[in-house]
Amino acid sequence: MTDLMRLFTRAHKLLRAATDEAMSRYGVRVGQNLVLEVLWEQDGLTPGELAERLGVATPTIVKSASRMATAGLVERRRDPTDGRLVRIHLTEHARSVQQDIARARADLAAHAFATLTAAERKHLESALVKIIDRMQSPAG
Amino acid sequence: MTDLMRLFTRAHKLLRAATDEAMSRYGVRVGQNLVLEVLWEQDGLTPGELAERLGVATPTIVKSASRMATAGLVERRRDPTDGRLVRIHLTEHARSVQQDIARARADLAAHAFATLTAAERKHLESALVKIIDRMQSPAG
DNA sequence: CGACTATCGATAGTCGGCTAACGAAAGGAC
DNA sequence: GTCCTTTCGTTAGCCGACTATCGATAGTCG
């Protein structure tokens, strides 16, 4: 049963590496693309909101956003009405690569799951959901 | 199809976090337990050999081994016949927690996959293998 | 024997995840 | 109107993964 775990880890690592490589061509790293996905949907979110939507800790977003700001993908702006909040906004450049990144993402998923039949994908999805539910339940 | 990817990431994260928590009770972190697994099987391997068996880059092992040495889990010894090689040996303490770690690992896997039927586990395994094969193939 | 090459571990620096602790701002209670 | 608490983002530091580079040692070839 632990072999299943090993397979899981191995597959995840390969997928992540391939994603990173595909995105890197557009100057976006694998973690950054997740932030962009959310901001493309709704710009000007706070680090806390981003963290919550991505299921990640706030400092992860803060660090990532700093690198993304350096890379010219986002800008930090103080909320005018609440001085505690910081709003993260996309730059023109981030908007310009949206289609490329979305396509890269879709192509990669299509490639990764290409050898699975529709039924197998359903099975995989339901298995993943079951595992997630199981691990999220209070009993841990 | 990218939802499948998201589910994958989410499940992996939950599994990893739970594993780390379970191991940490015995002073072993999630990455270190992988190194121990290999060394319990064959002690005195070099960083390069460990890296190859775990499918990981050598510096990852070097850093991990340093932390494990600090934690009293392993010792570095220079190979007597080839001065380039370093051999990593388990300490008595590392051997003493072997059963605990192995059990924790097995318990966690059992728990994670408890809500899957035998057939579903088979499906999951074959899907993972297909994905791994696909991502490893030259076409990338 | 001596120089060149290959091999190997270690180091530096990046990325992305975490927890713990801190500091600034907002809001409530009195 | 002042404290006190809550709510934020940030910082610091750990873990684990990577690439690129360096330094030391082995091995080979002339």
Automatic annotation (TrEMBL), chains A, B:
PROSITE patterns given in the database record = HTH_MARR_1, HTH_MARR_2
Q: Which keywords belong to this entry? A: DNA-binding, Transcription, Transcription regulation
- Pfam family membership, one: MarR_2
User: Does the keyword Plastid belong to this entry?
Assistant: no
The yes or no answer to whether the keyword Calcium is present is no
- All copies of the HTH marR-type domain together span 1-133
One function term, GO molecular function aspect: DNA-binding transcription factor activity
State the InterPro entries in the record.
Answer: ArsR-like_HTH, HTH_MarR-typ, Tscrpt_reg_MarR-type_CS, WH-like_DNA-bd_sf, WH_DNA-bd_sf
Q: What's the protein name?
A: DNA-binding MarR family transcriptional regulator
